Amino acid sequence: MSETLQTTDVAASDADLLAQTAIAVRAAGSALRERFGEVVRYQTREELMRALATNDDTALDILRPRLTRLRPDAGWVEDELDGGALPPGEWWVVDPAEGNVNHLHALPEWAVTATLVRENQPVLTAVHLPLTGETYTALTGAGAHLDGQPLHVSQTADLGLSIVATSQARPDEDEKVVRRVGSSITAMLFDALVVRTAVPATLHLLNVAASRIDAFWQFAGARADLLPGALLVTEAGGQISDAEGRPWTPQSESFLAAAPGVHAEAVATLSR
Predict the structure, then answer these.
(1) What are 193-250's pLDDT values in tens digits?
(2) Cross-strand bridge partners of residue 184
(3) How far apart are CA 215 and CA 147, in angstroms?
């Protein structure tokens, strides 16, 4: 078989796989939506962790068997908070309730994500927002889409006219990272038009891909936080790097996704 035919067959297979992945995240999202509405009360960290795990398990009971059937030989990342490189081969990187704390507090900013990583490169991703019914998808080389419509990052070329966003440091984060987050927000408050700070990271990255905001940055961060949005932004024409402008990998200590017209300015601001 020629190299051209082999490439075409792989692309067709991945496109079919993405369609099935989207169906799976929608099904998991429907299960979580049924649990949404009342604020879940907790008095201790242990009670909080149990509530978070219940949501995760609700979605994983749907996602794990469906995605495993689609790619039986792919590995499965057990902890959505893990970071760093993965072993060789294919891996499902899944966040069953991205923005889980928001869900528990009856806040609308949460999603279900599933990303297939091949040799440490995200190949396809599906992100479903159950409360709006939106599904964002991206396939390497085939673009990013919202419910089938192409996505494109903004054409903004002036950071001073830009809406930018970041996620706060996670609980129990290293003090150095927390202080770096704080200083970066201060710098952006001087240089950007509007600064948004909230979790989860994925929802900010969806907005970069859809040209609603112009840049997102984060220090530290997990694979499941960043890989779906990194692929969506890249396929929508955005630029990905670390905060110093170097190529980003899952091992990087920082992350920046931006419209090409403001990327260099964002790097300069974050490097001060």
Answers:
(1) 999 999 999 999 999 999 999 999 999 777 788 999 999 999 999 999 999 999 998 8
(2) none
(3) 22
Residue 154: DSSP 8-state? -
Eight-state DSSP code of residue 159: G
Predicted confidence at residue 2, as pLDDT, reads 31
Task: Transcribe 8-71 into DSSP letters.
Answer: HHHHHHHHHHHHHHHHHHHHHHHHHHHT-SSPPP-SSHHHHHHHHHHHHHHHHHHHHHHHHHH-
N-to-C CA span, the chain: 53
Residue 245 near residue 268 (C-beta atoms within 8 A):
no
CB within 8 A of 251, min separation 6: which ones? 83, 84, 85
CA 70, 11, 77 angle in degrees (round to 5)? Answer: 40
Kindly report which listed range (46-50, 158-162, 173-177) carries the lowest average pLDDT score.
173-177
CB-based contact 96:86 (threshold 8 Å): no
* Residue 218 tokens, joined: 């984060």
